[in-house]
């Protein structure tokens, strides 16, 4: 068994939707990023890479590389999963937390869990997705962006 954790943050900017856990969510702002700014999938990639001892997301998908401009972050997770498969590693479960004042994730939670479970090749009940605010404190409380935290457990060598 191997455990990994990952964190990501993106700032709000102009736009009419955010993409979280591979799901498009209408919003008053977008997220500023080289890719689609999916903080949940970025934190998840770092947790997977961390558990496998394979570095971090920036080493695999440079934000200076034009091929990742506006990229669908599901591609990042799929690529990382292929690396894990090569090492004989598989996901046991993932526990994800989104920290944000908005948008509210309740209505999108099942869609996000389903999407993430598909990417991780596990049943949705193996994917936990939690949301919290920071009670108005700090940059998240000022609604300047969204943060995500991911923990994953891998089985294998
Ligand atoms: Mg990111």
Describe this structure in words.
The chain is an alpha+beta fold. It has one domain (2-156): 60s Ribosomal Protein L30, Chain: A. The protein is built from 5 helices and 7 strands. The strands form 2 sheets. It has a 5-stranded mixed β-sheet with strand order 4-1-7-5-6. It has a two-stranded antiparallel sheet with strand order 2-3. A hairpin with a 2-residue loop joins β2 and β3. α1 runs parallel beside α3 (74-86). It is globular and about 45 Å long. The chain starts with a strand and ends with a strand. The structure holds magnesium ion. Magnesium ion binds next to β1 and α1.
Structural class: alpha+beta
Main β-sheet, spatial strand arrangement: 4-1-7-5-6
Low-confidence stretches: none
How many extended strands?
Answer: 7
| Tally of separate domains | 1
Strand content: 25-35%
CATH architecture: 2-Layer Sandwich
Looking at the structure, what is the overall shape?
globular
The helix tally amounts to 5
Radius of gyration: 15 Å
The CATH class label is: Alpha Beta
Helix content: 25-40%
Say which molecules are bound, naming each kind only once: magnesium ion
């Amino acid at each position: 068994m191997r455990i990994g954790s990952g964190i990501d943050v993106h700032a709000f900017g102009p736009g009419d939707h955010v993409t979280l856990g591979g799901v498009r969510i209408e919003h008053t702002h977008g997220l500023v990023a080289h890719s689609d700014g999916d903080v949940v999938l970025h934190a998840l990639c770092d947790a997977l890479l961390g558990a496998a001892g394979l570095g971090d997301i920036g080493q695999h998908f440079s934000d200076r590389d034009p091929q990742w401009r506006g990229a669908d972050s599901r591609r990042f997770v799929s690529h990382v999963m292929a690396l894990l498969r090569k090492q004989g590693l598989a996901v046991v479960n993932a526990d994800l937390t989104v920290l944000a004042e908005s948008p509210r994730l309740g209505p999108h939670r099942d869609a996000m869990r389903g999407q993430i479970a598909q990417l991780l090749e596990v049943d949705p009940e193996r994917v936990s997705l939690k949301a919290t605010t920071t009670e108005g404190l700090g940059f998240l409380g000022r609604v300047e962006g969204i943060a995500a935290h991911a923990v994953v457990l891998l089985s294998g060598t």
